[in-house]
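Let us begin with a simple case.
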Amino acid sequence: MKAFDWPAIRSRITVDGVITLADAEAVAAGRFAPDVDAVEAQRAADESIDHETPLSEVFEDQVSCADIVLLSKADLAGDAGVAAARSIIAAESPRSVPMLAMTDGIIDPRLILGLNMAAENDLAARPSHHDGDDDHEHDDFDSVAISLPETADPEALAEAIRRLAREQNILRVKGYVAVRGKPMRLLVQAVGERVRSQFDHPWGDAPRTSWLVVIAERHHIDRAAIQEALGA
């Protein structure tokens, strides 16, 4: 957002509005709230750590910057979950913003375009944990790319990904997998323990090489443990 306030840019471009996408099911479950026990454990190991969890900071920063919030996975969250997510986001936001629930990413574009917010003129109302604070780093998250052999059991792989989320606090997994006897590649997407997959297109002449990108907070990334869990 600050980049749009640079003179060379703001004279040519305005920001119609900032749209933040929030996973209603995860927000309602408290997955973006600070994990007090985890923070205390980190502080005990490193006295220089004095802030919230990186995930909660990112959540708060993105909510504070939003002109409108789209609540995804509304069908999975249910009415009670969506209501809980609305309450949590409202408590974090420095100002009142509209929140729209959606399922399967479907939203009428007329609702999110033409906001005319000129957000670059309103930076003071969009605070960040990183504003003027050199103690906070932007590399709190890390990822590893894991190569896998062909699998004969996609559900076993999905369960391995769910175990990673539970046992190693993995946030996100995405990539594609070669399934034995199948001419099409399997697209895999996971957010926490929620794993989805679908065959997207044939391998064709491309090598049948499976790759998964695993994303977590930096101190949770352990390549050897991830490879072992995934059978790499």
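The second case is a distinct protein. As before, the sequence precedes its structure tokens.
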Amino acid sequence: MLWTDYNVRTRMNWSLRALVALPFLVAACSPPKETPAESVPPKSPAGAAPAAATQGVVAGRVPTGGPGQSSVVVLQPKAPVEVAQVLPPVMDQVALTFIPGVLVVRTGHPVDFRNSDDTLHNVRVNEDSTKAGTFNVAIPMGGDYRFTFEKEGFYNVGCDIHPAMSATIYASTSPYATLSNTAGQFEIRDVPPGAYNAVVFAGTQRIERPVEVSPARTELDFTP
């Protein structure tokens, strides 16, 4: 082997070693890459998150107008409130009977009157206090009629075709109104806390008293 060939081969070996080592040298000398920080939602300051509105439950006992009768219970707020009506209440006619026999509705909101019977009916409604006629419409089989009561109070419901049929409607300006069961027990949910006038209609009795609704549960007893 000539000395010249030996020098050439030696130089080539060192060049190859340098090429192999170059990526490692570059990696070692390069500054480390920054790892992106995890995305963390910002923390709200203490008390900044709005709390959900607290709604209470009002329940209790009221007198009834007699055996098998229910009473109307109304919570009248001291300040005006706006509560949307999800579905219209319904008074149907089945087997020559108004169902339900007593219906609580809201003034300014629609009520549906239906005829699910196999015969023609009419619905005659008049104010209980003045006996003034409110409406009188014929409803064919499978038909319905929608009406909105604008005045608070009791209304008598009848059918001229079938005089034995009768029912009662109470139109309330308050969204917090219900019927008790025949034992006088009642419950009204989703009532904002605050001052109210509680009114009970039990037969011919009208009972009224101020009440304070708590954020949790308020128990009332109107029985003697």
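Confidence is low (pLDDT under 50) at residues 1-52. The radius of gyration is 39 Å.
Keep these points in mind for the review questions at the end of the chapter.
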